[in-house]
Amino acid sequence: DNLWNISRTYQVNLKTLMSVNKLDHKSILRVGQKLEIPGGQARMHIICRGETLWDIARHYNVDLAELQRINSNKQANNLKIGDQITLPRENSRIALAESLTPSRSIVSRFTWPIRGTMTSKYGWRDSGFHHGLDIAGNLGDPVQAAAGGVVSCTGYISLYGNTVIIDHSDGKQTLYAHLNQIKVKPGDRVARGSIIATVGSTGRSTGPHLHFEIKQGDTREDPLAYLR
């Protein structure tokens, strides 16, 4: 592990990570060493069909009253698909392992959802932290499921535009955004390579492309670590 990889994996600012742990660029990290991971970016959850605040609190193991407090602008009994729920910030401690790289068996499960030029990677940029990959495409190009799973959410989601979210058997989710046409519905089972949508430019978008994310729990991970 190194500090840059850890800051990227846990989506926290590198300078903040070093400051909290009283480290600098010359610090040598040891296997098993404990690091404090600051709350960093606000954690978000996108509402899918039938979800309630109680479901979300149970899923993330957070206090329901605190969840309601920080989302007081939302009507708990009238949540809509695509609503973004803010999760409580929390610091955590990790023990450094030999590597944060996913195992080869996990990596081999994911394939590129479209073929095109990658225009923005996962990580920090001038506008803030970018939580996925942007891949340029032509309007109407087919978008494929990166791995087999069950469609959990479809619809228009604020900045993402037309979006599909797929749940996978290992607990990961993949998200496909700025779509034109959506060709699946919640509950559909899809195989890796199944056509789920077409490339579009909906939501906050400057041209036809796919925004693609891989998520584990409430952590969005670097898709390049998984795609083959």
What does this structure look like?
It is a single chain. It contains 5 helices and 16 strands. About 3% of the residues have low confidence. It is an alpha+beta fold and 228 residues long. The strands form 4 sheets. Strands 5, 8, 9, 10, 11, 12, 13, 14, 15 and 16 form a 10-stranded antiparallel β-sheet that branches. The protein has a two-stranded antiparallel sheet with strand order 1-4. It is 14% helix and 34% strand. The protein is globular, with a radius of gyration of 18 Å. The chain has 3 domains: 53 residues, no CATH class; 46 residues, Membrane-bound Lytic Murein Transglycosylase D, Chain A (Roll), CATH 3.10.350.10; 122 residues, Glucose Permease (Domain IIA).
Task: Using the alpha-carbon principal axes, give the shape.
Answer: globular
- Global Rg: 18 Å
Annotated CATH topology of the largest domain: Glucose Permease (Domain IIA)
The counted number of beta strands is 16
Through-space gap between termini: 22 Å
Q: On the 0-100 scale, what is the average pLDDT?
A: 81
Biggest sheet descriptor: 10 strands, antiparallel
Uncertain segments? 103-108
Return the string of H and E elements: HHEEHHEEHEEEEEEEEEEEE
CATH uppermost class of the largest domain: Mainly Beta
CATH superfamily of the largest domain: Glucose Permease (Domain IIA)
Q: From the coordinates shown, what is the CATH architecture of the largest domain?
A: Distorted Sandwich
How much of the sequence is in beta strands? 25-35%
In percent, how helical is the residue content?
10-25%
Which structural category do the helix and sheet elements fall into?
Answer: alpha+beta
In DSSP terms, counting alpha (H) and pi (I) runs of 4 or more, how many helices?
5
